[in-house]
Design a protein that fits this description.
216 residues; alpha/beta; 4-stranded mixed β-sheet; 4 helices
Length: 216
């Protein structure tokens, strides 16, 4: 029996053709791990929980994540997001051992859809590349949501990580690609001071990858 469940949470704001390619990539890479998808439109992807059109916000995204974690039964949960590409090895087949650690993939790169950004840019981490103990994450989310509405379309911050939380970084040669399309309202992010690259292992060139995702 597996000890991990993939939690795929989405506001369904991306172009459907693009998000379908993301989901196909997850199925191709996940090695048969169980998937729980929590979405705002019904979808045929693992066990689906549809919450309806509650709106796009970080609060709603993490509320959907909580619902997915509560529906899972495995000791660990693996994050998967609708704007991330995952390699076939290293991430989904990683074996976490400590349910109280936050496991974070340390090989994350950003790719923008918009014109003029035809390279990959290094990012320290993204939430779509983390693995948690299920009970740990449920408790963390519930504590973060204390005093907040169930759903909100407003942009609001809320406490999440605390100083006592411990991270462990794990690595694979083939990176996770976080794609910024602007469809969900996010247009920028914090980058590391690393020279951008025209191509990356496993994924090839940024130009070719953008064509496959958006124009084919």
């Amino acid at each position: 029996m597996t000890d991990k469940t993939i939690i795929y949470y989405t506001g369904n704001r991306e172009e459907e053709k693009f998000e379908e390619k993301i989901r196909r990539g997850i199925l191709d890479a996940c090695g048969g791990l169980p998937i729980i998808s929590v979405s705002q439109k019904p979808m045929d992807f693992g066990m689906n929980i549809c919450v309806g059109d509650v709106g796009q916000s970080y609060l709603n995204a993490f509320r959907q994540l909580l619902m997915g974690c509560e529906a899972a039964t495995t000791p660990f949960v693996v994050m998967a997001e609708s704007d991330c590409l995952y390699p076939k090895s290293g991430y989904f087949d990683f074996n976490p051992t400590d349910p109280n650690l936050i496991y974070s993939w340390d090989n994350v790169w950003i790719m923008w859809k918009r014109e003029g950004y035809d390279r990959f840019y290094r990012k320290e981490q993204t939430h779509g590349s983390m693995i948690y103990g299920r009970e740990f994450l449920i408790n963390l989310l519930k504590e973060s949501f204390r005093g907040l509405p169930v759903w909100s379309r407003e942009k609001m911050g809320f406490p999440f990580y605390r100083p006592e939380h411990k991270f462990e970084y794990f690595h694979g040669e083939d990176p996770i690609i976080n794609i910024i399309t602007g469809a969900n309202g996010r247009k920028s992010t914090v980058l590391m001071k690393v020279r951008p690259r025209n191509s990356l292992p496993y994924w090839g060139s940024a130009v070719d990858l953008k064509n496959k995702l958006f124009y084919e």
